[in-house]
Amino acid sequence: MAASMDNLLGSEEIAKFDKARKLSEEIDPETQPYKSKYEAREILLDLKSTVQALLNENEEIDDVKFMLATLEYQLGLNFIECEELSSGEEHLNKCLLLLKDNKANTKCISTVLASLNQLGILWSARSEFEKSFKFFQSAESLYKDYCHNSDTAPYSLNELFLSDDDRLSEHQRHLHMEKLHTLTLYYLAQIYGKLDDKDKSAMYCHTTLQRQLETKQYDAIDWAVNCATLSQYYLTADNFTQARHCLASASHIFSEALETYVQKDPSEISENEEDDPVQYRKADIARCWTKYCILLLQTSKDKLQSEEISDEATERREQLLQECESDRQSASATSNDNRDDGAGEETKTNEAEGAACEEKEDVEEKEDNHKDAESEKDMAKLSLRFQSLELTSLESAVSDKLVTSFEEARSVFLVGQKYILEAKEYYVIDGHVTDNISIVQDHSHLFKLLAFFEPDLERQCKMHKRRLDMLQDVLQDLNSQHYLAYCRQLQYEMAETYSGMVDLKISLTEVSNQRITPHAISKINSLISQSIKMYETFIESLKSPDGVMPEKLEDDLVKPTLVAYFCMGRLLSKYITIDLDTKLEFLDKSIEKYRFVVNYLNKNTQFIGILRTEYEICQEMISLVPLKMELMKKQSTIHPT
């Protein structure tokens, strides 16, 4: 039975509902945070009584039931916003119960979708992600079924409380429905992430962003940050093309926010970063770009190193094949002496040719299948692009291909460094300590990766010196008590960097084919001392106030601590000196470091697996170094200086 809303509710009730909605959106003072919402609640409860009475008199009119369900939804939302979650859940469930037989009705499907979304959010907040997922999944299925079975745009969420003259157009209703579904997809992206299904989380996130672009229903800053965050997922899958596309899209859309943004006077900005959202969001997007450059260089480095190992293995394999071929020829000669006749040999030859043809066909079929698979991948990548955005200049600024040369690596490095400097404009050390440290560490990592591609050993050393300078600048400003974990990270990285420079300096003396100079010796020994000093500073931070090393280290500190001892043992043996007593003293200390590693692992055997290489080398060194020391003493006796 159809009826006009004006005949079901008077203008007074419609005005009350409108007032309740406006009150719900007001921002109250901190002293009375829910004042307006409580007022709205009273109005909604009063309206509920009125509509419930109307339903009791007109049970056959579906529209009245739909209006009551809308009020239950609004009350549920009201209680949730006032942090009364159980009461909010109760009202939302009442809403769905009222509409259980009319879920796909044009006049109430929006209410059902909104209620399912809110219940999904509610259970997610309780960390009940499986329950949350079921509500969002139900909303998604309901939307798809409705779109499949109906061409009519459904009423908006509160449209039953509008007068006939204020009803929405088909287009407005369609936009409202699509916005509700976009929210469902957005929440599904979050829940899939919580359920550790990263692939589906990324897919739903991309779909959400795409829909927001198409409908132009998005906040430019939020959209850009979400898209930049999505790029980090693609980085974990080594999909640099898609990651770059997301970052370029984020930067492009963020420029929209910058066009309308008016820089605030510094005196007007409080300590709360939310007061100036554009600047810190700009820095966050810049940091995502930095991670892209770091991962691209790191993956390129890893691939080149694996190829070097593979080349060595290939050379060995070819050598073995040659040996096998030699053996086979010898065996073949013996076989020919004992063959039966030509007919038998011809049969074998035909069989071999047939097998070769079959093998060739198999190879060709596999190649065709591979090409088809690659084509499907290319199509899938194309479908994940935001086609409406012009990103040529942004995407062409940095490669999406693995680099193989210093020039290619330098191009990526410069882009990463540009974004690091951009991020540091906001994340200064004063007020953003931990963020600033992370950014400096990223900068150091970029230099480290660039040095890998630099063929000139002297220039490599200079790059590592830059790393040391920037790390030291941060470390000296930190309070070791308040930022102990970060101090340890910086100390350890500096120790590793000094140690790496020792190896470079030694390599330089070896490739020069000249007698090592006193200056070079002094430099190498100085770098060794500085590396050991940093490792020891790290070790000291683990000790008790009275300077005693704990018998049992925390699990996450076992590997770095034992590796530090291992590295110190290695470094001590590299000191260059012509004084025998000094050299023996260094070697004796070296044995102490190796022995610490072996003793600790013998007592805590569960860690041997993660330090197998270091453990075995230390055992070997404990045996070999004393022999070396004895030999040095004997040689000194025979050839005294």
From TrEMBL:
Biological source species: Saccoglossus kowalevskii (Acorn worm)
Annotated keywords: Cytoplasm, Cytoskeleton
The UniProt record lists the keyword Cytoplasm: yes
Localization, UniProt: Cytoplasm, Cytoskeleton
Main subcellular localisation: cytoplasm
Assigned protein family: Belongs to the KIF-binding protein family.
InterPro entries: KBP, TPR-like_helical_dom_sf
Keyword Cell wall biogenesis/degradation: no
Start-end of Basic and acidic residues biased regions: 313-328, 337-351, 367-377
Name the UniProt record assigns to this protein: KIF-binding protein
Region (Disordered): 305-377
